Amino acid sequence: QVQLVESGGGLVQAGGSLRLSCVSSGNIFRFNAVGWYRQAPGKERELVADITTNGRTNYADSVKGRFTISEDNTANTVYLQMNSLQPEDTAIYFCNAGTRVRNTYFPSTDYWGRGTQVTVSS
After folding, report:
1. What are phi and psi of 26, to 5 degrees?
2. Nearest C-alpha neighbor of 75 from the set 106, 34, 16
3. C-beta separation of 4 from 26 below 8 A
4. Helix extents (H) in 7-122
């Protein structure tokens, strides 16, 4: 059983920064990547960034240059450093255990965290 727990969300002014954490436990080793998703009210969940077990990173165009995904394998944690936040970044952020194959990230169906709220005020 894989469990993922997000933390680090909050309220920040535009231009500010937050760092999200996703701590995993259980048999996550059968997945080769962890992804951060976000879902804003009335919108579909979208992939923001993901990182593979060999350190390859991928970002949505909307966050390139502002967000950085990283991992600390000793702590079973994946981070999402978010800088230059804008009101359009407001969403619930979720992490997911999944699989990256070439240019595509395949999220697992069952292994999602509960999410952490990020609110950016203008």
Report:
1. 90, -165
2. 34
3. no
4. none
Q: Which residue has the tokens 């240019």?
A: 103
Beta bridge partners of 18: 82
> What whole-number distance in Å separates Cα of residue 69 and Cα of residue 36?
9
N-terminal to C-terminal alpha carbon distance within the chain: 40
Q: Per residue in 31-56, pLDDT tens?
A: 999 999 999 999 999 999 999 999 99
Q: What is the pLDDT of residue 17?
A: 98
Who contacts 38 (Cβ-Cβ below 8 Å, separation ≥6)?
45, 46, 48, 89, 91, 92, 93, 94, 118
Q: What is the Cβ-side half-sphere exposure of residue 64, based on CA atoms within 13 angstroms?
A: 5
Task: Give the pLDDT confidence of 7-25 residue by residue, as tens digits.
Answer: 999 999 999 999 999 999 9
pLDDT of 28 reads 81
Amino acid (1-letter code) at residue 46 = E
d(CA 72, CA 59): 18
